């Protein structure tokens, strides 16, 4: 973007005539009187409007031909860089905030109108001063990526960073993360860091920080409160609970999925209630009785093998696609079957072939709730005979991630099967 911040033609002439710059607080007299901050424009925007952010947080465009008067109320102060170290409250616990990117660490790019990575972990820390009343926040940037760009290599980087902190004095660890694949990351960390002694909360936002409806601050505040007061261990995903703007849910990292594209309460615990609820008064409500990790001993196993496929069966599915997976070196297949865990008999021959090639074959269900029960119907029993392993009520996404992890941390298919059937991090 140029120094003109996207303005051109008549709009730019209007700004120069009135000696107004982007960032100024201004008062515009037109058909109505508007007060707000002059914002940048999209590069593709017209030259007929000025854009200001109102006190409500919303932006409004004003036709330059309708403007009668512009008054500069104030200009942004350029603050000198602060070299002194921040003061910590010795009575508060310590939390580490790791930033990986995503909407919670983003703002609107006025060149394109898109949400782009912009804020560092330190920026988040400074933007939400309420955090300083809960804990002393350290901040570190691991990387800055939207979650759709995160790959298993990023999961292992996060896991390795957390492993290095296992004996630290942090009360909890926040991971700022994009929401689209957050539940994949939380699943891997749950298996790779089984028994991890410090609670971890992955936290994100559905709406960027510059929007009045942003959920970034409430989610961060609730997640921090949860970490310092819940007295628990585990990998949790912390987001808005429902349409109540003041309630935040803390989901078990292996039992959660994103069920809505845009609303703030997009995440739900599958088959039950969230493990914890943070109330509007920041009280912690515990809903689970069992420990997150089934073995109290910390046992990090961070290897991963991505030669795993998630196959969503449907009428008309071409069995040759499974043959292609076998030929390309796939070592495990997780089927997302129908109902209680079924695929059509047209798949039987290729499933037999996959088993002969020593692939691990697991079965989950396309249904949101309920367990796989492959003994009920003949077709399910046939699949059991062919060597498919039912995966109880694990979600397809968690099953996929666990299979990658189990494949990377086992010597053979039998050992992998044993790991897949072991309840490690409340995945069943």
What is this structure's SSE topology?
Elements: H1 9-17, E1 25-29, E2 33-38, E3 49-54, E4 59-63, E5 69-74, E6 94-99, E7 106-108, E8 115-117, H2 121-127, E9 136-141, H3 152-163, E10 172-176, H4 182-192, E11 193-194, E12 200-203, H5 216-229, E13 235-240, E14 248-252, E15 256-258, E16 267-269, E17 276-278, E18 284-286, E19 299-300, E20 308-312, H6 320-327, E21 332-337, H7 348-356, E22 360-365, H8 378-385, E23 389-390, H9 396-408, H10 413-420
Parallel strand pairs: 6-9, 6-10, 10-12, 12-13, 20-21, 21-22, 22-23
Antiparallel strand pairs: 1-2, 1-5, 2-3, 3-4, 7-8, 11-19, 13-14, 14-17, 15-16, 17-18
Helix pairs in contact: 3-4, 4-9, 6-7, 9-10
Description:
With 428 residues, this protein is an alpha/beta fold. The chain contains 10 helices and 23 strands. The strands form 6 sheets. It has an 8-stranded mixed sheet, sandwiched between helices. A 5-stranded antiparallel sheet has the order 4-3-2-1-5, with no helix packed on it. A 4-stranded parallel sheet has the order 20-21-22-23, sandwiched between helices. Strand 1 and strand 2 (33-38) form a beta hairpin. The protein is globular, with a radius of gyration of 26 Å. The relative contact order is 0.09.
What would you call the structural class?
alpha/beta
CATH class division of the largest domain = Alpha Beta
Shape: globular
Tell me the total number of β-strands. Answer: 23
Query: Which band does the percent of strand residues land in?
Result: 15-25%
Helix content: 10-25%
Biggest sheet, strands in spatial order? 9-6-10-12-13-14-17-18
| First-to-last CA distance | 51 Å
Number of helices: 10
Task: Say what the CATH topology of the largest domain is.
Answer: Rossmann fold
At the fourth level of CATH, the homologous superfamily of the largest domain is: L-asparaginase, N-terminal domain
Largest sheet: 8 strands, mixed
**What integer is the average pLDDT?**
89
Q: Indicate the CATH architecture of the largest domain.
A: 3-Layer(aba) Sandwich
